[in-house]
Design a protein that fits this description.
Shape: globular
Order of helices and strands: EEEHEHEHEHHHEHEH
Number of domains: 1
CATH topology: Rossmann fold
Largest sheet: 8 strands, mixed
Radius of gyration: 18 Å
CATH superfamily: Alpha/Beta hydrolase fold, catalytic domain
CATH architecture: 3-Layer(aba) Sandwich
Number of strands: 8
Length: 280
């Protein structure tokens, strides 16, 4: 699997990077997935899609996965601003840097990355052909986000003052699971997650009118997701004209964390859907 690394933005002494994985089929250079990782904005790494990359590449799809600065060192509003720059970088460099023939793209995000893909979709990009969202959301108006989470209460308590020791003094993109998950765990245990994201303004919420303008959407979400309520995905599926929504009868959040038959089936359906969008 070949890969290239590019800097899409220098910001606050950070080099924000993108990993580019070109399609295995050299003739198919007109479909690119722009991918954003999850992690509650507090942790995560840009190349966490590895178990499923081959499926995309063998199907003739390019994948471009992005860094973004993490909260709470960077407020969510600025995270979104950086990723708007990421999309702009792709559109300005798809020919010269990536050697692609077409700028057509799909935004893909999982969990918090699904939120980021959703909020970016409100920009109505001319060349965006669709949105892919796995167990994501498009607003923060969920009681689950502001109350102690029952699922995370099962883990040993991490007091906020202990968890906050992993917060750095300057913006960072370094958010490995080992280093930063305790911060997210504590935030969900104590119901103070949103306090780490900075002001949640109207600009950071996707409303129904905006959803109605969305391009075709592919979504997957477990019915009994213990982390992100499925309600947001159901709301989006009802508002968007062209939406393929897979509700999985599972009590998992990131059902595709590791390769398994259910996840492989979902990704194969996603590949079929992507092929349909391109042919259409």
């Amino acid at each position: 699997m070949s890969t290239q690394c590019f800097i899409y933005k220098n910001w606050e002494q950070l080099s924000l990077k993108a990993s580019f994985f070109p399609a295995a089929k050299t003739a198919a250079k007109n479909r690119t997935i722009l991918y954003f990782h999850g992690g509650g904005f507090l942790f995560g790494e840009r190349e966490d899609l590895q178990p499923y990359l081959e499926l995309f590449l063998e199907s003739g799809l390019n994948v471009l996965s992005f860094d973004y600065p993490l909260a709470p060192e960077t407020p969510l509003s600025e995270i979104v601003d950086c990723l708007e720059e990421a999309v702009r970088w792709f559109l300005e460099n798809y020919q010269t840097q990536l050697k692609l023939s077409e700028p057509d793209f799909f935004l893909f995000g999982r969990s918090a990355g699904g939120y980021l893909a959703s909020i970016l979709t409100t920009n109505n990009y001319e060349h965006q052909r669709g949105l892919i969202r796995f167990y994501g959301y498009h607003h923060f108006d969920h009681s689950d986000f502001v109350l102690p989470n029952a699922f995370y209460q099962r883990f040993p308590k991490v007091p906020p003052l202990i968890a906050q020791q992993s917060i750095k003094k300057r913006p960072t993109i370094d958010g490995t699971l080992a280093e930063r998950f305790s911060l997210y765990l504590s935030a969900r245990q104590y119901g103070n997650w949103l306090s780490y994201l900075g002001p949640i303004t109207d600009k950071l919420t996707v409303n129904t009118e905006q959803l109605e303008q969305f391009p075709p959407v592919f979504m997957a979400h477990c019915q009994n997701d213990p982390d992100v309520p499925i309600d947001s995905s159901r709301q989006l599926s009802e508002a968007v004209e062209h939406c393929l929504f897979l509700e999985l009868d599972l009590a998992e959040h990131d059902f595709d964390r590791e390769e398994n038959p259910a996840a492989t089936e979902v990704y194969q359906k996603l590949i079929d859907w992507l092929n349909d969008q391109t042919q259409g």
